[in-house]
Design brief:
It is a single chain. The protein is α/β, with parallel strands linked by helices. It contains 27 helices and 19 strands. It has a six-stranded parallel sheet, sandwiched between helices. Strands 2-1-3-4-5 form a five-stranded parallel sheet, with helices on both faces.
Length: 696
């Protein structure tokens, strides 16, 4: 079959979580589910399924028809049914429609929609007629609202939806008899609660007269491998053999850390595996969650690889976990890496992308191989022709300074997209991660307090930064006045190890209002206070546009802003006037979506009409009067949005220079999936940086 590259990336399954707004525990449980299925922002480098998850607290009648039309192959709708939902006539009608649609789906050859009802009420069997013959999860009142057990029930239901013929999963427990038997028995006892996990028990399951090592290997080949790491585990030859074999054949692996005094020498094979700390007080729910999410990651990646194979990508080899030096040894044994060939190899592995130190170790041994996630591979339109080309493609965005502007829209706007604060964190972390992993320097403005853009980005810096010190940093932060005033010297010194911090001084025209740039006007909310903020933010945004090559806009508030315009609108304006390529990403809605609509859909931009006034108490005349008293150019402070609107309306031709076609830019603005948006942005940035390299 002739090689052809897939031209897009679409999620294998979309998750919709629905609950009644009066169900207080619904939000908490949905958040727990989001961490298991999509991302735990506190553990961003952990292997996760990274599934798109949306939240709804209204009877969304569009879910079923949208599910049937959208590009994902499957949609799972998780309905948290409590008393409030079942007693509502409106919700009852919606549940009835949902049930009918689900039964129609069951009758199809390849169902694309699965309803997962969860009865979260005291009388769990009441009103089940709404569900017809559909099975449902019973969440009894004596279980905690965020029950990990219930999360596990949903995980196995999703796995069954994806891989219909698999009703259970084998688990191979690898342990040392001298000090691991007790831990193994503890786990076995608690696995009885999970009939879909079938552990292998060597005392009972061995075949008399057969070679036990071959028997073990045959079990491992179809199992999730759980290593019980006790003090003697790595000193036991058979344990090491079992672990090495599981890693060699790329099985899902979980390490249970049950060390007491410590190991004399740890195993060299345990790198790049998920590790859980063992506790006898634990009910094993966390271990089961780890097993099921690991399996889900592997199943999703296998389905994605199938798409690559169908597209004729014979060059691509596959690692089902992040490749490491052990993978290289295995690939050589299997003749998957051809070091003498001039044709480069591509090793495809699941998200998240490798860090620079990890890549450097691999490239030292395999300079003729590119290690890429599906997002990176699909984003690169470079033909892999020569070793020199490989080196340039490993970091396709090297030398590119990218302004990344991501902020939450208003809460109501975010909820209208089916999203919450966790989605904003996820989007920012993933964009920053991929940009840094591809060699770009990420530039942003803001602060480092809790729940700020800076604090979110810092979660990946230590893993993905190229080296310590400002000259080698992958991140640059412009701190507008007066944000820089609040940065403690000790904090700044620590941050400077990873981030190039550039504190900006107060603009000249407000130095008199700020005691020569040493403090803000005392009366918060006064005209002088607002003017100082607006001028400082304008100058910071102008500076970032002048110092960067590209601007990416995501989310953003449309009201309640501190500047003369919403932040993303002013950033778009300066990017356009600087002729910087601009990427307008719509996956979080908000201000970026309004800018996208203005550029590509030529709508009336009715939302931006609110941008004319700074605030109910702050008029254009007030602003201009203060500006005139400080001899500031009118164009620099004018609150009137007409010049801004004209610039943005006429920017579509300039946006064509961002490396994407008009159709791809339309997808970037309409897409709800952040991975698809990252793929498109990386594709455009790669083209932009190649053009810069040629012109230099």
């Amino acid at each position: 079959m002739k090689n052809q590259e897939p031209n897009d990336i679409t999620p294998t399954i979309q998750i919709e979580v629905v609950w009644h707004p009066d169900f207080v525990a619904g939000e908490e449980f949905a958040s727990t589910l989001f961490k298991a299925l999509s991302m735990d922002a506190d553990r961003p480098i952990e292997l996760r399924p990274s599934l798109p998850v949306r939240f709804w607290t209204r009877p969304n009648h569009e879910l079923i028809p949208i599910a049937a039309k959208q590009s994902t192959s499957r949609v799972a709708i998780i309905v948290l049914m409590d008393d409030s939902m079942l007693q509502s006539q409106e919700w009852g009608k919606w549940l009835s429609e949902l049930s009918s649609a689900a039964h129609r789906e069951v009758e199809t050859v390849s169902p694309s929609v699965r309803i997962l009802p969860v009865a979260m009420r005291h009388d769990i069997y009441a009103n089940v007629q709404l569900l017809g013959q559909m099975n449902f999860l019973a969440h009894e009142s004596n279980l905690a609202p965020d029950s990990q057990y219930l999360v596990n029930q949903i995980l196995i239901s999703l796995l069954h939806f994806l891989v219909k013929d698999k009703l259970y999963y084998d688990v191979f427990l690898s342990y040392s008899r001298s000090d691991g038997a007790e831990v193994r028995d503890f786990i076995l006892e608690r696995f009885k609660r999970y009939p879909y996990l079938r552990p292998f028990v060597d005392e009972h399951d061995l075949i008399v007269g057969a070679l036990y090592r071959e028997r073990f290997r045959s079990i491992i080949r179809s199992s999730v491998f759980v290593a019980i790491q006790t003090d003697t585990y790595s000193s036991r030859t058979e344990s090491v053999r079992e672990f090495e074999y599981a890693k060699q054949i790329q099985r899902p692996i979980i390490v249970v850390d049950a060390l007491v005094d410590g190991e004399p020498r740890s195993s060299s094979y345990m790198g790049n595996t998920r590790v859980l700390r063992y506790s006898s007080a634990d009910k094993t729910e966390r271990l089961v969650t780890a097993i099921l999410t690991e399996v889900l990651c592997f199943e999703l990646f296998d389905l994605e690889v199938d798409r690559f194979r169908q597209a004729g990508n014979e060059q691509v080899t596959v690692s089902r976990r992040a490749p490491d030096l052990h993978y290289l040894a295995t690939s050589r044994r299997n003749k998957l890496a051809h070091r003498k060939s001039r044709s480069p190899n591509v090793c495809l592995y699941p998200d998240p992308p490798l860090s620079h130190p990890e890549l450097a170790s691999l490239k030292a041994f395999e300079s003729n191989t590119l290690f890429l996630t599906p997002v990176q591979y699909l984003s690169s339109q470079v033909l892999l022709e020569s070793t020199n080309r490989i080196r340039s493609t490993s970091l396709p965005l090297q030398g590119l300074e990218v302004q990344l502007s991501v902020s939450p829209p208003g809460q109501l706007q975010l909820e209208a997209e089916g999203k919450r604060a966790g989605h904003v964190e996820q989007c920012l972390i993933e964009f920053a991660r991929y940009l840094v992993a591809s060699g770009a320097t990420v530039v942003f403005g803001g602060k480092f307090s809790s729940k700020s853009v800076g604090s979110w980005i810092m979660r990946i810096v230590e893993s993905y930064g190229r080296a310590e010190g400002p000259r080698q940093t992958s991140l640059r932060a412009y701190m507008p006045f007066p944000v820089a005033l609040g940065l403690d010297p000790v904090e700044r010194r620590e941050l400077s190890k990873h981030i190039d911090i550039i504190p900006l001084t107060a603009p000249d025209d407000v130095r008199g209002l700020t005691k020569d740039g040493r403090q803000m006007p005392r009366l918060e909310g006064s005209k002088e206070w607002k003017y100082t903020w607006a001028r400082s933010l304008t100058e910071a945004r102008r500076t970032m546009a002048e110092k960067t090559h590209v601007t990416i806009l995501i989310g953003g508030k449309e009201n309640g802003f501190l500047g003369r315009f919403p932040g993303l609108v002013e950033e778009a304006f300066f990017a356009i006037t600087q002729s910087n390529p601009l990427f307008v990403v719509g996956c979080l809605g908000g201000c970026a979506r309004s800018i996208y609509n203005a550029i590509y859909k030529k709508n009336t931009w009715n939302k931006i009409a609110a941008f004319k006034a700074y605030s109910p108490e702050w008029t254009t005349e007030d602003f201009l009067k203060l500006a005139k008293s400080h001899n500031v150019e009118q164009a620099d402070v004018l609150v009137d949005y007409k010049p801004l609107r004209n610039a943005i309306y006429g920017s579509s031709n300039r946006l064509a220079k961002n490396g994407l076609t008009k159709e791809e830019n339309l997808r970037l603005g309409d897409s709800q999936d952040y991975l698809e948006c990252i793929h498109l942005v990386l594709k455009g940035l790669t083209a932009v940086n190649q053009l810069r390299s040629v012109s230099r």
